[in-house]
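So, who can interpret the following?
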Amino acid sequence: MNIKLWPVLISVMLLAGCAAVSGESSTDLGYQALETKDYESALEFFDRAAENKENLQDICRGRGIAYMGLAEYDQAVSALQDSLSESKGYAGDMEFDTAFYLAVAQYRNGDPASSKDTCTAIINLERNDPDAYFLRGKALLALGEDDLAMRDFNQAVSLNRNDPDLYIDIYECLSNAGLAEEGGGFLKSAMELTKINDFQKGKLLFFMGEYDEARANLESARGDGSDPALILWLGKTYEALGDKSYAASLYKTYLQDNQGNVDIYNQLGLCEMDTGDYASALKSFETGLSLGDSEILQSLLFNQIVAYEYLSDFKKAAVLMEAYLKSYPDDEKAKREYEFLKTR
């Protein structure tokens, strides 16, 4: 799910427009850097803004978003909490936006309990927010509270019935939690929507196992091939149909012609692993990691370790696995793999 940008972004854009005449503040420049995903520069601008004693709430919020972009979630959580503290109890659009960022950062930082609590605070103040219900549902799933998660997912749908992507996101969450059967109902409901484009229909058909039909719809939606999400799902569909070589060529062509994409690098790496090209797979995973912010950071890190194993660099794999388990101590598969690595 994409982090939403509430009306506060409109105000940021307006500030930037005015600054062209009056001279841009360091805070404005920081937010402009965020828009281009230049997170290191954004942090430098926000540090300068703090030295200039500009608005601390805006500075802390910007820092939090930048740290999220760098996948430094501990610092993101701290900065976003500082921003909310500066609000002095006022809860407007900016504060809701910051709280939602905080909930996402907490979730990605491996703290679903805090993410759930933050989402609950948002819901208590703004009850008609489907994104908050969806994210709280994800957190509840991570906490093993499946029934409560389903209740939140259903509430999210009731508030946003006509968005096929929401149904798909919910299915993916449930499927990843081993609840694909329960998620099937969301797919069926999405297929009954009147406003659904070829891309969305293709994803739905993919999850329903109708790969030939999924490919036809995704190819129809392909256009100039510049949409990374569409290329990712089209490639996955060709993989499911057994044509991993063509899937890999799709990913490579996209990456040659467009800005790097974390998900596509990860999927390309998996294709390369399947075909035995472990050196190329490792390069793909490490390039993906170098791009920073990603909801699939854990997957990238684990895949990187597996690639080192296949390359017989067990010492490097063991070092990386030790670090991995510090961040993801509940990964039982990784624990077993670490025990194996320590014997090599």
Notes: Residues 266 and 285 are 6 Å apart (CA to CA).
